[in-house]
Amino acid sequence: MTARPAKKKTATRTPRQPDRPERTDIRTIARLANVSIATVSRTINGVTTVDPKLSKRVWDVVEKLDFVPNTQARALVSGRSKILGLIISEITNPFFPELIQGFEDIAVDNGYEILVSSTNHDPQRMSHCIRRMLERKVEGVAIMTFGIEEPLLDQLAKRKVPMVFIDHGPDRAGISVLKIDYHHGIRQAVQHLAALGHRSIAFVSGPHHLHSAQSRLAAYNKSMQECGIQPLSEQIAEGDHTLEGGGAAMEKLLALNPLPTAVVCSNDLTAIGVLHKLYRTGLKVPDDISVIGFDDIHIAEVMMPPLTTVQMSRADIAKAAFEALRSHVEATDSKPAPREYKVPTQLIVRESTGFPRGTMTHLRKKT
């Protein structure tokens, strides 16, 4: 019996896998640029001692491959995160987006990133903000809010994280303060009203527990006395720096007899709330009562009427905050970081201020 020939086994073909793109990392950059890994690392981390020709070769490859460095890995190598924190009180306040934009612009121009957190005036949320900053290993924090508690400050201070505050801050190493010149701007506002003939000038403050609100109220009282006008306690109404707070404060002032002829407000949101309340009451601005704000947020210029206000430049605050933090981060024994930075204020006259009511009638009778 003839044996059947054995069946040939057919080889099973494995489907060809598509070519996988090469993973791009600093080793790839080093190979393609024909330099060492250390040279790539130093170039990407901005070390100035790298030979310019080698640096150019590295950056040419980086651009060709559209390589994005791993910032966390870079921070481990360099020991620097190049991240600055910015803590604000409420993102919905029009004052803060302009501040954030200015701070980010100048930070990015100088090779830093920013991490923004909003507290909404909540201590628990503030604690969360601080924890986020520490987890991301920020190199400094600009605290543009009020009422931060000492234990939270200690968390940053014991890790030697530089801080900058607005108006008021602890007298510790690694801390700077932005001093707003409230008195100059508010004095200009009161003098402007006094020059128009106003002698009954009310003030809507911010919450009295805030240092900034106390500073603005003190500036109002001093400015009134400088103009020879005695400030009256019944003409000072406490607000909360919101539209609603401005309206509620103006309602209290409307109960006065006689009604003040002018109102200076602690911020623009308060002033806009005052304008709205006066409109609902049927009183005209500035014919019946003059109104001045503080901050000069963008919307102030397009109010009806355009709001006369004290300008506190967000660009100036952002620049000063960044410079303060960078001074601490890059400080040397021969050039320590300054403790204080001055931020100027300036009155911007628009159309919400005019002569006291009845002034023009009296002038016509005299003529």
Automatic annotation (TrEMBL):
Q: Where is this region: Disordered?
A: 1-22
Looking up CDD domains in the UniProt record yields: HTH_LacI, PBP1_LacI_sugar_binding-like
Q: Which SMART domains does the entry mention?
A: HTH_LACI
List UniProt keywords, sorted A-Z. Answer: DNA-binding, Transcription, Transcription regulation
Q: Does the keyword Transcription apply?
A: yes
> What molecular function terms (GO) are annotated for this protein?
DNA binding
Origin superkingdom: Bacteria
Give residue spans, biased composition: Basic residues: 1-11
Q: Which organism is it from?
A: Acidicapsa dinghuensis
Q: Which one Pfam family would you cite for this protein?
A: LacI
Ranges for domain HTH lacI-type: 26-78
Name of the molecule in the record:
LacI family DNA-binding transcriptional regulator
**UniProt xrefs under SUPFAM superfamilies:** lambda repressor-like DNA-binding domains, Periplasmic binding protein-like I
